[in-house]
Design a protein that fits this description.
mainly alpha, 87% helix, 0% strand
């Protein structure tokens, strides 16, 4: 694969990371302003018909269980986590897209920290989504590392 194609994949991965970060920020803000009662009520409305049709529906049952255990403390944790995670990723994606040299190592460190946390959470939840996100993050780390080496090589050559 040629360098131009790898760079295009790098840029697309950054745009996907940026879009995901925006969704996290919106989700964090919504969790911060919406009460737990509203969340439980929404989950009830979304799952009620499915549970009437199939009382043992896996997804609807797990959503209802999660909503039943959704405390104010849990809500505040996820609001903070999503908002801070999203804002950090937006800053890093912007720095990378603008070619800021600091953003490459900062992004590598941040993504590694996120991966460690995702694997920690996976040890409790066994969520396939966390594995998919971790694999995507590992691909993005490789792309960032590859781009960083090219940027540094170009910077040294231009001196």
């Amino acid at each position: 694969m040629n360098e131009q194609r790898v760079h295009q994949i790098f840029e697309v991965s950054l745009l996907l990371k940026g879009a995901h970060a925006l969704v996290e920020c919106v989700g964090g803000l919504l969790l911060a302003v919406v009460g737990t009662g509203t969340i439980v009520s929404l989950v009830n409305r979304l799952t009620q018909e499915e549970l009437v049709d199939d009382p043992h529906d896996f997804i609807a049952g797990h959503l209802m269980d999660a909503a039943g255990h959704f405390s104010v403390g849990t809500q505040h944790f996820y609001a903070f986590y999503l908002l801070s995670h999203g804002l950090i990723k937006i800053a890093l994606v912007a720095g990378l897209l603008w070619g800021k040299l600091w953003a490459y190592p900062a992004s590598l460190v941040a993504l590694l920290v996120f991966i460690v946390y995702q694997l920690y959470r996976f040890s409790y939840t066994h969520s396939a989504g966390l594995i998919v996100l971790t694999i995507f993050d590992l691909i993005v780390i490789w792309l960032i590392w590859h781009e960083y080496r090219l940027v540094l090589r170009h910077k040294v050559a231009s001196r």
